[in-house]
Prior knowledge:
Layout: H1 6-15, E1 19-23, H2 27-36, E2 40-43, H3 47-50, H4 62-75, E3 80-84, H5 94-106, E4 111-115, H6 119-130, E5 135-140, H7 146-149, H8 159-175, E6 179-183, H9 187-196, E7 201-204, E8 212-215, H10 217-220, H11 238-254, H12 269-277
The structure holds 3-methyl-2-oxobutanoic acid (KIV).
The site of 3-methyl-2-oxobutanoic acid has 12 residues, from strand 6.
Amino acid sequence: MGKITPETLKLMKRKGEKISSITSYDYSTARIVDEAGIDFILVGDSAAMVMLGYPTTHAINMTEMKIFTSAVARGVKNALIVGDLPFGSYQASIEEGVKNACELIKCGANAVKIEGGSDYIVELTERLTTQGIPVMSHLGFTPQFLNALGGYKVQAKGLEQAEFILKQALKLQQAGAFAVVMEMISEEAGKYFTEKLDIPVIGIGAGRYTDGQILVIDDILGKYKDFTPKFSKRYADLNSVIGDAVQKYIDEVKTKKFPTEEHIFAMKEEEKEKLKNASYINC
Ligand code: KIV
């Protein structure tokens, strides 16, 4: 399989092939995920919560996002890498948004993701796409707007809000966005958006009918236990795997079972003899 591009994802939609996607934030995980055959990796600002322990995504900054993005890029051969523009990196001006998007591309991202669908975001999307930076949009529940939305609320539960979101998505598509993440919306709206848009709709809590799915890796691996969203599914229990392994290691250190001969570096025999007879170490 070769490198996945925004065009590949659009083609997958046209062929009715489902798109798989997951977040990653570090080299070794990104390498495993890429080798498993994921279509695209999002270096999400969810790193603020699952990697850095903040309660929301607001606190993460460009410096941190650049470190995570370049670590992921070093581990990936085939998957498309999407870097998330964090809160505060594009709100002040279009120019700042363009500059920060360029920074993520320099770190190895192949595209950037931007939350929101206001006219300002549409303009930023157009500026970026016309300058060769592919943009993935993000609508529905947008975590960076948590304060404005008044909490973790399912979006597009009725026709009026669904129409409002669809209008924004159509404008973003027109501005050049190559895909759109739809988060925490009713399944009916997810299906409606998927049918109405030409670009792939990637759902996270958007039901069964979107062109693709994305989840946060720490959630599916059972590593992040602070909060498990209803829309996520746990495929492993790394919390127990890591806890049990570390417990065993502690036990073996305390009971002198680790390290054993296979883990040590020995001196040559003649050096051992010299060491035995040495009355002091000349240093
Ligand atoms: O930051 C993130 O992980 C995301 C996904 C939830 C889509 O934006």
